[in-house]
Design a protein that fits this description.
The chain is an alpha/beta fold. It has five helices and seven strands; from the N terminus they run ββαβααββαββα. A five-stranded mixed beta sheet has the order 1-2-3-4-6, covered by helices on one side. Helix 4 crosses helix 5 (about 140-150).
Length: about 160
């Protein structure tokens, strides 16, 4: 969901029942929005927000399992990488407004932003690594931000 007001564009992930998972559809919607900002002179700030208890629980593991074939899974991760890499390249500052758990790739989404504003209920976790999952990619953005600020708390 997109709302533009006074030079501020708020992109709200609105799938609270699924913890705003980064499905291929969600990734495409975010990518489309980010692409629209490249030459947008009216938008001065982009805010990424979410509805529900969680900000974003990362990838949809059911979707990944259903893809079954390695090339399809690699394509999904490529789509995610392009979207994540787009955030710091935008001419506008991007702010994550975090109200709940940001886990795995959801934590990476927050860490890719220029600034994160977190409610008292916010949690940042990269627990996939401890579960033996394949994705440690959030650690790159989290590590970059953690070293830049002593205020970043993880787990």
């Amino acid at each position: 969901m997109r709302e533009d007001r006074d030079g501020i564009c708020t992109l709200t992930m609105n799938r609270p029942q699924q913890m705003n998972l980064l499905t291929s559809e969600m990734l495409a919607a975010l990518q489309d929005a980010f692409d629209s900002f490249k030459n947008d002179k009216k938008t001065r700030v982009v805010v990424i927000a979410a509805t529900g208890k969680g900000f974003c629980a990362g990838h949809d593991l059911k979707e990944i399992k259903a893809l079954k074939e390695l090339p399809k899974i690699e394509a999904l991760f490529g789509q995610c990488s392009r979207m994540m890499q787009m955030i710091p390249m935008l001419p506008q500052p991007v702010i994550a407004r975090v109200q709940g758990a940001a886990a795995a790739a959801g934590c990476q989404l927050v860490a890719q932003c220029d600034l994160a504003i977190a409610a008292d209920t916010a949690k940042f976790v990269t627990s996939g690594v401890t579960w033996g999952f394949f994705c440690s990619t959030p650690g790159v953005a989290v590590g970059r931000n953690r070293s830049a600020s002593t205020r970043w708390k993880c787990c």
